[in-house]
Amino acid sequence: MNKLFLAAALLPHIVFAQGSLTPPGPPAPSMKTLAQIEPRTAISALPFTINQPGSYYLTTNLTGVSGQSGILVQARNVTIDLNGFELAGVGGAASGIFTGPSLTNLVVRNGTVRNWPNHGLGVASVTQGRYEGLRLLQNNSGGIAAGPGSIIVDCNLEANGTLAASSASLQIGTGSIVRNCAVRMSRGDGIRTGYGTSIIDCVVEESAGNGVFTDESCTIRSCTITLSGLAGIDAGPGNTIEASSAGYNNDAGIVAGEGSTVKSSTAFANSLEGIVAFNAVTIDTCNSRVNGAGGIFAGRDTTVLNCTVSTNTGHGILGTTNVIVKNTVATRNTRNGIQLDDNSTVAHCVSSQNRSNGIDIAVGCTITDNTANQNLRNGILVNARCRVTGNTANENGSFSASGAGFLLIGDDNHLERNNAVHNYIGFDIPGFFNLIIQNKASDFTQAGFRLDTAQNREGPIVQDPNTSTHPWANFAY
Q1: What is the pLDDT of residues 85-139, one digit of tens each?
Q2: d(CA 162, CA 140)
Q3: pLDDT for res 372
């Protein structure tokens, strides 16, 4: 230890230079300014006009004055935070928030806008607006009227709009998004959109007009629409309606414009049809039940796939020309289970317990691999020039008095490999020039086959399969 101390004592001393002790200038302020703490402009009274871009916020609940809008926005790139407060209208005032022409990038959030004689938010002149976390209540012309490219999220709208045909609680321009909103008791339509708009995860209830009304090429996904005065969903051409429900509406549940797709959706207890499809619509994996004027109306060139249509007043499915119905169940409807016009196809379907015919098709149709059971009149009714193959018709009509498994009322049909069991008549064929081969009728009351053999072309009709080796034989026993 003494040696270490001696070595340290013998080292040369090192001297460090010292800097100037004179301050470079007067001391700077150490506290932030009010603008730095709150870099926004307060709105503490109405009316208020915004002429500069920036961020604005309410400091308290505010009430409008007659003859003016609450907040008039005349600048681009503006954010208004209602800060949890409300803008309340009075008689003779205009809109809660109103915008001048040709604006962009307006944000309004977090508060209530109520009782304005015009719109709560009259912001239709703004493109690329965003409106979130708002409550729009009892505004006379509508809750929100937004321009193209807008986003409306997490908003509640109640009792907005008028009874005018074009009125809507929430009206939004083209190319917009409405998400996670609840719209109730609208005095016009609930939601009305321009083309190319998406409505997602919304609830619309008790609208005096349509629940949702859309223009072309829109998407409606995961929405619930109930108790509308008109249709639940009235969708324009080229729409996609998916995973949505329309129930207890005073018109049709879902109206799909030309070229639209309706998928994985439900129409329940609507006053008119459950689903109305204009031309060239695809309806896939839908349920239409307990509707007042039919389950599905299918316009020209429409396809119905994997659907259940039951307990409707009227037809289960009523289609025009060139309609395809596949893998679908139609049951307990008060008229025909499936009725289609010319050049249509029914394949792999079940139509049972309907109060008229199970399947009723017109001219030039294909009916393949279907089951028609326990329908009050006939199992399958065919007009002319149709191909009917591989179907089963069981217990149709009144077994002791009337009804056929298969009724061919027209000419030039092809009837092959069909099975009729426990019907009053198995195959009733009053038409001419039909080809009838390899069919079976069993457990009938009056006749297995009733036809004019001189006017049709049929394989031999035999009772015991062991007595005939004819490849085209029909069997009746």
Answers
A1: 999 999 999 999 999 999 999 999 999 999 999 999 999 999 999 999 999 999 9
A2: 6
A3: 98
Cβ count within 10 A of residue 6: 9
Q: Which amino acid is at 185?
A: M
Are the C-beta atoms of residues 170 and 142 closer than 8 Å to each other? Answer: yes
CB neighbourhood size of 201 (10 A): 14
Report the distance separating Cα 34 and Cα 218, nearest Å: 47
In CATH, the number for domain 294-477 is 2.160.20
pLDDT band per the 50, 70, 90 thresholds, residue 163? confident
What pLDDT score was predicted for residue 44?
A: 97
Identify the band that residue 417 occupies on the pLDDT scale cut at 50, 70 and 90: very high
Nearest to 428 by CA among 400, 443, 449: 449
Other C-beta atoms lying within 10 Å of the C-beta of residue 286: 25
The chain-wide mean pLDDT, for the chain, equals 93
Q: How confident is the model at residue 3 (pLDDT cuts 50, 70, 90)?
A: very low
Other Cβ atoms less than 10 A from the Cβ of 415: the count is: 27
pLDDT recorded at residue 468: 79
Tracing tokens 């239409």 back to the chain, one arrives at: 288
CB-based burial label for 403 (10 Å; 0-12, 13-18, 19+): buried
- Of the candidates 325, 327, 297, the one whose C-alpha atom is nearest the C-alpha of residue 312 is 297
Q: Give the pLDDT confidence score for residue 115 in this predicted structure.
A: 98
- pLDDT, position 10: 42
Taking the chain, what is the end-to-end CA distance rounded to the nearest angstrom?
Answer: 125
For residue 7, the SS3 value is helix
Q: Which residues of 141-155 are buried (b: 16+ CB within 10 A; e: fewer)?
A: bbbbbbbbbbbbbeb
Percent of the chain at pLDDT above 70?
92
Between residues 29 and 327, the one the model is more confident about = 327
Cβ atoms of 244 and 268 within 8 Å: the answer is no
Structural element, H or E, at residue 135: strand 130-137
Domain boundaries, the chain: 294-477
Q: How far is CA 376 from CA 356, 372, 394, 404, 425, in A?
A: 5, 11, 11, 10, 13
- Which whole-number Å values give the CA distances from 154 to 115, 198, 402, 412, in the listed order? 20, 14, 60, 61
- Cβ pair 189, 215 in contact under 8 A: no
Q: Contacts by 411-415 with C-beta closer than 8 Å and gap 24+? A: 411/384, 411/385, 412/384, 412/385, 413/382, 413/384, 413/385, 413/386, 413/387, 413/388, 414/386, 414/387, 414/388, 414/389, 415/388, 415/389, 415/439
- Residue 275's closest CA among 250, 249, 294? 294
